[in-house]
Amino acid sequence: MDYIFSPIYHYKKPDVFSNVSDDDWHYQMQEKVRCIRMYVHALNKPCLVVCNTTSQLLYCSREVLDLLGYSLEEVIETNGFFFSKILHAEDSDFVGKVSQDIKSLLLKYNNETNFLHYYIRFFFRLKHKSADIISTDCTIYPLLYDRGKTLFSVITLNENIHLDKYACEVCFYKAKQRYLYSLKDQSFVPEYKLLLKSIEYTILLMVANGEREHTISRKLSVDFNTVKYHKKNIMSKLSVRSMPEAVYQALRKGIL
């Protein structure tokens, strides 16, 4: 069986919901958990719900216990801090390191149209009861927010054979924007900036500055056909049919 921790029913009602009665608040919280449970059971996914302000575990699916080898009693004994207990120390430090950058990205897209349409993806190492380390593909979805702050997070886990250490992405899927964490830059950068090869990015920048093909060819010491080849790749990666469109999309998406 899965387990719902009592704090989810006693969580302080935010001011933004002051017009909602306590009974309705309680009902809405129950409904959210019910929907999550249906989703979890339908897809057979390990799932947790964590309170963002206290880091306490509010819901734990049976699949999580099966994946990590813990009993329900052992989870309850952590007083709700189960996820903090099983998260590898280095990954916990990494989350602390990038959290401010993630908050900045969320603020950038914080409006009524698309604030809730995002997810955050980490590759975490979790401690199995046997002391083994399990690599997981961890996706975090927002659940209920108050004035731009997410109150709860739904966390789904998938065991991942290959560990992508210190990998993280933030995807605003309604805005069609995806940011990947760059170890080189120590910050989040647009996906396309990482997908473009160095020479492709240089050519795109030169085109944006009004450079013609023969000038690009001379400055980069490559032949005409090589420039045309890279231009074709740039247009393909940006899903456009011309270089002016590529420049426009690059500017709109923050690549340039």
Describe this structure in words.
The chain has a nine-stranded antiparallel β-sheet, sandwiched between helices. The N and C termini lie far apart (51 Å). The protein is α+β, with helices and mostly antiparallel strands. It has helices at 7-10, 22-43, 62-68, 72-76, 82-86, 89-108, 191-195, 198-208, 213-220, 224-237, 243-252; strands at 3-4, 47-51, 57-60, 119-127, 133-146, 149-159, 168-172, 177-182, 187-190. It folds into two domains: 3-190, Beta-Lactamase (2-Layer Sandwich); 196-252, Orthogonal Bundle (Arc Repressor Mutant, subunit A), CATH 1.10.10.10. The longest helix has 22 residues, at 22-43.
User: What is the H level of CATH, i.e. the homologous superfamily of the largest domain?
Assistant: PAS domain
Low-confidence stretches: none
Q: How far from one another are the termini?
A: 51 Å
Largest sheet: 9 strands, antiparallel
CATH architecture of the largest domain: 2-Layer Sandwich
Q: Proportion of β residues?
A: 15-25%
Secondary-structure element order, as H and E? EHHEEHHHHEEEEEEHHHHH
The number of distinct β-strands equals: 9
Number of helical runs?
A: 11
- Overall mean pLDDT stands at 84
How many domain modules?
Answer: 2
The CATH topology of the largest domain is what? Beta-Lactamase
As an assembly, this protein is: single chain
Structural class by SSE content: alpha+beta
**What would you report as the Rg, rounded to the nearest angstrom?**
23 Å
What descriptors fit this protein?
11 helices, 256 residues, single chain, elongated, Arc Repressor Mutant, subunit A, 43% helix, alpha+beta, Beta-Lactamase, 9-stranded antiparallel beta sheet
